[in-house]
Every structure is written in structure tokens, then in C-alpha cells.
Write a sequence for this structure.
């Protein structure tokens, strides 16, 4: 007998997982060792959630679990049973963009876009908690989301633009909208 | 309303055309691709740094259920390499491994887990060879050569050039400054891990989707390495999740999955782990350098002699080009009457180095800009003024025959000096706070392709049809820098339409005309010019058809706001869509092409092909820091940076590139380093990466990033599309030396190497407290046997760009003579 004992055919049995995904009930078969990243990307085809390390170091895989940012690469899918998960695909309301999505595009908050889903969801959770977040609070909230392209400045500016907008203030002069 | 010089799209801050697809998660990166019946690939990588492969037994792996194919070095008899002069890589190692991480086998299986388990059960027996880790020792380590090509020892390549007699200039100078600097290597750390998917079709053709910056070069390399005609291969570059140079090379895994897809008849995918990405590397070369500079009593440079030693890692990669780049661009910032440059690259048992943002130029720039700070201090001059006095003039040919067109460097210096209130701060802030200034210059595209040819560097095709829609086809690759948007902006501007009405199809060797790739900051200038040409040809066709219809002369027609009209009678115009209909009726199916090749360089000497560019960008930065003398901790308060962009096509993207460059530069200045350590001899004695994870490889987080004040200097360059020059790389260059100079201003210690860490600052302070000079950096530069330099008299000494002593020819002649003597 060789290592074939551990082969794909003898994988741990799969189990059904029932959870809320982007506001809809989702049922999917998963193995106990599948991470949420894997299930979202590979089972459900929601590739908007990214990964840059799969070790909890970069933040690219951030999704919201019951409204809080979590690293989906460190979360076992089975832990989501009965809970609510939001991914970047769920940010739009119908055909309407979330204000963060348009602000990031307008103001350069996204370049390559690879960190963007995670950053957007982290920012969304922040604004729900602290609708008048200061730059310091934005920095703090995003400190687990690595971005190698932007140098963060236009990310901060994009979030601040949404905050201003939510407070009914006019756009900052010189900003791009 | 005035004419065509009034831009409607160019220069307007806008969302990129692909911005929303990124913020909605719809951009499809390579790892987002899933194909029916897709198999998965894992590579087995060497855990020893330098060894002969004695035996490779795949039988246990082969027997595992779910395993479809195992490939080894035997399956890849042909070597490849990105540069024609270093064809030293194999998709999988055959006889020898050269660094920890060198791939030796590939397993293709039903899923990643199975492939991984199978890969781990492959038995490899190695015979260890001496590990080469120190670049200075590598110079003479004949016994442990990594490759059987190159020069003696582990020297990959040596270069020597003398543009005038520098020793003479230095002997006649009022001052001569001699300094040694060290620039530690670091890596790109693009957020996206490299991924690739290959699929064969029943006709035996194969398609590779990959996170590559250079689909054209991958196309060529696949053809060579797999011995397949290029017509059988299609390479599609997916949008890159960041590149920074890290995806410009051809990678083992790309070749492996392509072969595997052909062999299995099923799609095959690979996505590297983060650790593997560290092994792919091709990042910043560690460079030891010595700079001797002659300075006149009033602070003018009289000549410079630069020597560099590059630790190349295990393979050639872009290394020969990197080696040239450590010397090529010194003369394009400040006027340098004479210049000598010697460079040497060695092989060591580490992941191969290559191009990272700034490619070979940040290292000597770091040295030169710190040395200028020392010169200013010695001469009791303000370092900003010293620089202003020596800035090179526009429309000049430099000592090494680079043609400078526009140069906005003086303006950049003035702007950052003004914005930062430099005069009030430099040498005036309390102990522990300081400011530093530095400058830089970069190419807007290399003057030559990496392989010799007479064809365009960039091609664009435009398709227009009666729907009024316009599609741009171009081989360029969007790596996050916004190159798709550049195409859209330019075509929209010329045709007077909205950029959102322009679709782009890019980076596909089957569908798009060749563009060489997203490297050397070439894309805006080269694809931009090609796009202008194609769009103007389309505009001419439309104008002719509309003119006939309106019975006015074609040249008078204006294309703006989605309409084509005679400005004398705007109401009589037609919509853009109607104009296309008129042209399609008149001329048949519409399509135009545009191409771009850079102007012929002035250099005629061998090796003069590295350095020429259609336009150079310039930057200046002032960095404001706080240094805690107790802990050595450095806090960067603010960065002021001015960049000579020529023209900003989309200011949002331009500013993003500038700040992104500053960010990466601060990382290199303060913390990023790709370093290695020896395992204890009891374990393996192997030379291993010290920090192949994102946690251990330190980079700036959102908490560390200071505010960046950006000034754009817009002085349109005649060679740039609408005057635009590069911005992707240049703004990084001044940051590292500006930080070093600011640290000196703050606490009076010179850190002549990066990264500048708290430990080094404390060491310098401690040294100073004991009466030392307070300098941390390398002590000396090794004795290297340089070849006889190519001697090229500068233009002002009667030179014509040719070498007067071509040592290569002389050597060939001697060899020939020797051959004849031996034969007789
Ligand atoms: S993928 Fe990097 S933190 Fe999850
Ligand atoms: S936009 Fe590229 S990593 Fe953030």
C-alpha cells in the first residue's frame, strides 16, 4: 500500500452548509477543512474575493461575517453555518453601486484592484460603525489590508469622500467627481 | 471656441475605464479562471541551495490516485531565458539545482491537495555542491561555478566604459569625493500570487492565460522551450494584481502548465503560494558600489567613476540589462563632463534577481544623491542649490550619448523646495528632526527591444463600425498602472468621443498587435503614440466622408463631444455615429493601424543600446523625518515630491503612480529586504530565505504611510503622446536617498546603505558618541579585474558615439592571431 491511501477518493466526507450569502440563503457541500475563501471562489464561483497569502497576512481575502471584517482564508467554511457573509459581489444593491465602489473608481482608490475587494468591505464595516471616521480611524481600520499599488493615500481620500457625501457635505475641491 | 489644442479628455481627472470592474470584483485575474475538467499543478522545489541531482524517483507519486502526469527535467531539454545572451533556465532542473526554491518536478492531478501530496512523495537524491552566497567571494569561486557560461569564477558579466579620461579630470579637480554604498536587495511583493492556466485545443494548439507583464516575450519563450511553432501558441495576459517588474520574466510554471495541458489534453492550472513567489523573485539586485566624483571649487561636477557589483542570484534573467542600468542613467540628471562606469554581476545560490521598479537605477541613484549631500556640506552649499546649479540642460547629448529632450528637473527641485519650506528647515530643525532632498530620472521606455529587430515596439489596431463603437486592440498589459485607460483616453481625445465609449482588447497574442510589454515604463509613450497614429488615420477617413457629405473641406472639421462638425457652422454637424456610417459607406469596413518605434539612439558603441529612451522623466523629493535618538525609530512625517510627467493624461492615475512609487521607495528605504541565512550545519547548512512570508517581509501598512504632497510638472515632451512621459517608476528613485539625507539632517549619522533601520541609526549614534564619524555602511569595494574599458570620447571632446578602441574587436583579433599561431 502506498500513499494512495490519502488520495482524493478517500477525502473526508462532505457536509452541507447553510448560510446567508449576500442576503440570500445559500446551501453548498463542503469538506470540514475547506476555508471560506475556497468555498466562495472554487465552489460558488465568487472570485471577487482574492487571496495574496492564504495565511492571514495580507487582507486580500477579507469578507464580512455578520457585518464584521474577517479573513476568509483563516475561516473554515463550516464555521459560517447559519451566519451571514457578505462579499464584494453583494455590495451593489441591484444595479446600484455602493458609494464606496464609485468613489474608489473615481478617486484612484483602486489601481490593480487586487486588494480592492478586501479594502472596500473593511471600509464598509468601518462606515457602519463610525460614519464620521477620521483619517486616523480609517488608517487603523485598514491596517490589516495590504495594498502594494496605491500607497494608501487615494484609498483614504476615497473613503473620506464617501463620509463627506453621507454627511451631505460638498466634495473636496480638487477631488475628481 | 478654439481649436484642437483644447483637450476634452486628456488632463481631466476621471475614473479609469476599468475602475468599476475592479471595485465590483469583476476583473478576472489569472487565478479567477476555471475551465471544465481543469487539472491542477504543483511544483516540487529544491530544499538545497546548490547540488547535483543524482536521482529522482517519481514512482510513489505516480501510483497515487488522482495523479495524471509527472514532469521532470527530462521533459524539458531546451533552455530558455528572457535575454538572448542568457539562455540558462530550464522549466524544471535537469542535472543541477541552484537555489532553494529551484523547481525539479511537477505533478498534475485532479486537485491541488492531491498534487501537493504527490509532489512531496517524489524522492530526490542530491549531491551537495559548495554554496556560493557572498558576491565578493563569488568573484573568484572557480571551484563552485553555478553555470558553465559567463566569465571566470562566478562572474556572469563585467562591463567597463570610459566616456573621456575621468582620472585626468579627477586629478585636476579641487575636490574628489570617494564613497562606498550598499543597496540591499528587495522584492516586488505584488499582492497577487503568480497564476497560470493552459488549455490545448483539438488542433494541437495551446492557450496560456497568465499573470504576466510581457505576453509577447512569454510567447517567444514558450515556442523555444517547448519546441512548438509560435503559430500554435496563444498567450493571454490577464490583468495583473500588481507587477512592479515581478512578472516581466518568463517563469518555470508557465512553461510547465503549457506542456502539461498539451500532454493531458485537459486544462491545467497553477497558482503559486506566497512562499513560491518569493522564490520567483527577479527583484532588486543587492548592489555594492563605489563612487569617485570630482568637484570644482564652485560645486560643479568634473567627472565621475562609478563601480558596481551586483549579486545576481542563480540565473541570468534580465541581469545583463540590470548591470548596464546600474550605470546608464547617472549622466542624465546633472551635467557630467566625463564619466567612467565599471559593473560586474555575479551568480550566487539565491533566487534570481531582475527588474524591479527603477530597474538597476535606484541603487546608484541612492549613492550619488547621498554623495551630493556630502559634497554640499563640505562646500558649505545648500544641497538644493548645489543641484540646481548642475542640472543638465534640455536638448543635450550626455557624455554617454543619451539624448535628453525636455528636462523639468530644475522646476521639480524648486517646487519641492517651496512646498516643503526647505529653506526654513534644512540644518535648522532641532536635533531629532530633519529634512533631506534627492532627485532622480527614469526612462520612458527602453530604446531597444530585448531581442534585435527592426519592427515596431508597439502596435495598435482600431476597429470602428456603424454602431459608432470603437475598439482598440493592443498587446499592452494592464498591471494596475492604467494602461488600458491610456489607450482609451488617447483614442477618445483624437476622435472626440467619450472614453467610456472606447473598448480595449489587450495583451492577447492571437488578437492584438504586438506590444513588447509592461516594463521600462514604456507603455504610455509607446502604445500612446501608436494609438494616436491609428486614431488619426481613422479620423482622416471619417473627416473625408463627412466633408463630402457636408460639402466642406475635410481639414476644417472638428471632432468633439461625440460630434463631427465645421466650427464655422456647428449646427450642420453630424454625430460621431453618423460619421462612421458615412465613412463605412464610402470606404467599406473600417479599421486602421498605428505603430511606434523609438528614435534611433546616438550611441554607436557596443552596449550603447541600454539607456537610450525617447524621453526621460525627472523627480525631486523632500522627505521630512523624525528620528528618536533613544530608540533609533524613524518616523516619516511627510514627503513632498515633484514629478516631471510631460503631460498628465489622467491626473488621478498619475497621482496614484507617484504616491505608489513613494510608498514603495519608503519601504525600500526603511524595511524591505530580501535576505538569506544559513541553516545550522547540523540541519542542512542550506542558504535559505530569511522571510518568505508577508508577515516577516516587512512593508509599510496604512498606519506607517505618511502624507505625500504631489506636484506635477507639465512640460510636454515632443516625443510623448500629447507630451506625456513616464510616471510608473521615476518617483520611487529620489525617496531612498532623501530619507538617508533627512536622517543625517536629523541626527547627524550617515547611513550609507538601505534599509535604514533603527539598529543602524543607534550604531551610528553610538559610534559618534565615541568620537567616530557616525557612519554605517560598507567599508570598501573589492578589487575586481575589470576588462579594458570601451573608450568613447564625449560629444564635446570630438566624439561621434563610437568607441575609439573597441576592446572586443581587439580581443577577437588577438584570439584570431593566437589561433593561427597554434594552428601553424
Ligand atoms: S489571503 Fe492573505 S490574509 Fe487571507
Ligand atoms: S490596488 Fe493593487 S494592491 Fe491595492
Amino acid at each position: 500500500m502506498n500513499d494512495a491511501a490519502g488520495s482524493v477518493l478517500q477525502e473526508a466526507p462532505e457536509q452541507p452548509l447553510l448560510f446567508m450569502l449576500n442576503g440570500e440563503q445559500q446551501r453548498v457541500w463542503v469538506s470540514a477543512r475547506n476555508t471560506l475563501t475556497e468555498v466562495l471562489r472554487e465552489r460558488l464561483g465568487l472570485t471577487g474575493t482574492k487571496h495574496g497569502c492564504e495565511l492571514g497576512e495580507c487582507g486580500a481575502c477579507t469578507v464580512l461575517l455578520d457585518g464584521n471584517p474577517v479573513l476568509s482564508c483563516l475561516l473554515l467554511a463550516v464555521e459560517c453555518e447559519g451566519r451571514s457573509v457578505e462579499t464584494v459581489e453583494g455590495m451593489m444593491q441591484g444595479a446600484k453601486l455602493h458609494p464606496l465602489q464609485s468613489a474608489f473608481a473615481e478617486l484612484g482608490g483602486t489601481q490593480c484592484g487586487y486588494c480592492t475587494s478586501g479594502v472596500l468591505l473593511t471600509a464598509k464595516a468601518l462606515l457602519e460603525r463610525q460614519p464620521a471616521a477620521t483619517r486616523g480611524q480609517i488608517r487603523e481600520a485598514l491596517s490589516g489590508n495590504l495594498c502594494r499599488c496605491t500607497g494608501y493615500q487615494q484609498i483614504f481620500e476615497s473613503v473620506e469622500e464617501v463620509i463627506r457625501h453621507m454627511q451631505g457635505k460638498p466634495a473636496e475641491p480638487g477631488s475628481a467627481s | 471656441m478654439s481649436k484642437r489644442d483644447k483637450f476634452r479628455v486628456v488632463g481631466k481627472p476621471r475614473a479609469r475605464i476599468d475602475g468599476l470592474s475592479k471595485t465590483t470584483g469583476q476583473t478576472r485575474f489569472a487565478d479567477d479562471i476555471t475551465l471544465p475538467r481543469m487539472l491542477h499543478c504543483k511544483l516540487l522545489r529544491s530544499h538545497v541551495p546548490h547540488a547535483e541531482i543524482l536521482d529522482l524517483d517519481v514512482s510513489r507519486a505516480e501510483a497515487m490516485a488522482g495523479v495524471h502526469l509527472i514532469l521532470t527535467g527530462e521533459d524539458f531539454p531546451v533552455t530558455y531565458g528572457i535575454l538572448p545572451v542568457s539562455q540558462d533556465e530550464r522549466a524544471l532542473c535537469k542535472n543541477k539545482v541552484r537555489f532553494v526554491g529551484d523547481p525539479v518536478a511537477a505533478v498534475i492531478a485532479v486537485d491541488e491537495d492531491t498534487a501537493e501530496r504527490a509532489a512531496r512523495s517524489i524522492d530526490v537524491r542530491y549531491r551537495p555542491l559548495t554554496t556560493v552566497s557572498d558576491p565578493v567571494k563569488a568573484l573568484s569561486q572557480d571551484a563552485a561555478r553555478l553555470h558553465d557560461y559567463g566569465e571566470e569564477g562566478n562572474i556572469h558579466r563585467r562591463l567597463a566604459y570610459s566616456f573621456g579620461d575621468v582620472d585626468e579630470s579627477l586629478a585636476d579637480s579641487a575636490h574628489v569625493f570617494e564613497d562606498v554604498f550598499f543597496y540591499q536587495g528587495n522584492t516586488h511583493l505584488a499582492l497577487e500570487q503568480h497564476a497560470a492556466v493552459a488549455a490545448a485545443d483539438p488542433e494541437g494548439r495551446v492557450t496560456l492565460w497568465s499573470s504576466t507583464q510581457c505576453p509577447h516575450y512569454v510567447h517567444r519563450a514558450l515556442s523555444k522551450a517547448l519546441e512548438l511553432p509560435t503559430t500554435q501558441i496563444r498567450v493571454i495576459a490577464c490583468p495583473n494584481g500588481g507587477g512592479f517588474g515581478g512578472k516581466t520574466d518568463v517563469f518555470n510554471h508557465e512553461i510547465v502548465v503549457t506542456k502539461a495541458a498539451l500532454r493531458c489534453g485537459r486544462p491545467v492550472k497553477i497558482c503559486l503560494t506566497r512562499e513560491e513567489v518569493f522564490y520567483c523573485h527577479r527583484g532588486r539586485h543587492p548592489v555594492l558600489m563605489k563612487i569617485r566624483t570630482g568637484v570644482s571649487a564652485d560645486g560643479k561636477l568634473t567627472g565621475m567613476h562609478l563601480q558596481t557589483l551586483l549579486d545576481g542570484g542563480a540565473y541570468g534573467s534580465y541581469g545583463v540589462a540590470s548591470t548596464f542600468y546600474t550605470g546608464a542613467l547617472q549622466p542624465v540628471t546633472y551635467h557630467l563632463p566625463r564619466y567612467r562606469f565599471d559593473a560586474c554581476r555575479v551568480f550566487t545560490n539565491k533566487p534570481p534577481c531582475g527588474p524591479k521598479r527603477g530597474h538597476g537605477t535606484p541603487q546608484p541613484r541612492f549613492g550619488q544623491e547621498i554623495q551630493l549631500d556630502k559634497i554640499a556640506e563640505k562646500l558649505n552649499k545648500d544641497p538644493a542649490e548645489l543641484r540646481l546649479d548642475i542640472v543638465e540642460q534640455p536638448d543635450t547629448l550626455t557624455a554617454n550619448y543619451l539624448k535628453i529632450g525636455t528636462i523639468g528637473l530644475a522646476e521639480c527641485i524648486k517646487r519641492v523646495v517651496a512646498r516643503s519650506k526647505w529653506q526654513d528647515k534644512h540644518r535648522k530643525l532641532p536635533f531629532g528632526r530633519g529634512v533631506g532632498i534627492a532627485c532622480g530620472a527614469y526612462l520612458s521606455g527602453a530604446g531597444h527591444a530585448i531581442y534585435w529587430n527592426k519592427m515596431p515596439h508597439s502596435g495598435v489596431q482600431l476597429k470602428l463600425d456603424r454602431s459608432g463603437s470603437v475598439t482598440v486592440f493592443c498587446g499592452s498589459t494592464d498591471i494596475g498602472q492604467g494602461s488600458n485607460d491610456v489607450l482609451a483616453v488617447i483614442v477618445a481625445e483624437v476622435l472626440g468621443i467619450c472614453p467610456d465609449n472606447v473598448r480595449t482588447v489587450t495583451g492577447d497574442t492571437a488578437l492584438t498587435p504586438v506590444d513588447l510589454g509592461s516594463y521600462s515604463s514604456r507603455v504610455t509613450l509607446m502604445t500612446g503614440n501608436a494609438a494616436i497614429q491609428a486614431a488619426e488615420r481613422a479620423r482622416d477617413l471619417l473627416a473625408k466622408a463627412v466633408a463630402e457629405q457636408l460639402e466642406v473641406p475635410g481639414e476644417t472639421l472638428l471632432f468633439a463631444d461625440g460630434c463631427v462638425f465645421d466650427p464655422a457652422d456647428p449646427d450642420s454637424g453630424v454625430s460621431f455615429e453618423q460619421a462612421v456610417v458615412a465613412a463605412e459607406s464610402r470606404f467599406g469596413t473600417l479599421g486602421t493601424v498605428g505603430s511606434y518605434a523609438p528614435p534611433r539612439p546616438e550611441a554607436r558603441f557596443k552596449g550603447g543600446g541600454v539607456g537610450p529612451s525617447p524621453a526621460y522623466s525627472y523627480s525631486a523629493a523632500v522627505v521630512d523625518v523624525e528620528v528618536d535618538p533613544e530608540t533609533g525609530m524613524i518616523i516619516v512625517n511627510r514627503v513632498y515630491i515633484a514629478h516631471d510627467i510631460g503631460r498628465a493624461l489622467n491626473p488621478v492615475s498619475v497621482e496614484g503612480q507617484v504616491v505608489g512609487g513613494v510608498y514603495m521607495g519608503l519601504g525600500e528605504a526603511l524595511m524591505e529586504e530580501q535576505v538569506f541565512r544559513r541553516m545550522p550545519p547540523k540541519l542542512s547548512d542550506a542558504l535559505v530565505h530569511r522571510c518568505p512570508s508577508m508577515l516577516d517581509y516587512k512593508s509599510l501598512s496604512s498606519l506607517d504611510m505618511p502624507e505625500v504632497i504631489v506636484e506635477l510638472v507639465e512640460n510636454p515632451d515632443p516625443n510623448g503622446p500629447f507630451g506625456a512621459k513616464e510616471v510608473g517608476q521615476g518617483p520611487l528613485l529620489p525617496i531612498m536617498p532623501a530619507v538617508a539625507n533627512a536622517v543625517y539632517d536629523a541626527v547627524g549619522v550617515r547611513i550609507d546603505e538601505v534599509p535604514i533601520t533603527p539598529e543602524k541609526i543607534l550604531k551610528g549614534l553610538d559610534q559618534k558618541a565615541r568620537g567616530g564619524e557616525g557612519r554605517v555602511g560598507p567599508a570598501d569595494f573589492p578589487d575586481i579585474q575589470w576588462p579594458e574599458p570601451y573608450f568613447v570620447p564625449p560629444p564635446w571632446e570630438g566624439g561621434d558615439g563610437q568607441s575609439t578602441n573597441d576592446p572586443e574587436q581587439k580581443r577577437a583579433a588577438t584570439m584570431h592571431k593566437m589561433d593561427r599561431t597554434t594552428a601553424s
Q: What stands out?
A: The beta strands of chain A are 14-21, 24-31, 62-65, 68-71, 84-86. Chain A touches chain B through 66 residues (CB under 8 Å). Chain A is about 30% helix and 15% strand. Helices of chain A lie at 36-43, 99-107, 116-129, 135-141, 153-166.
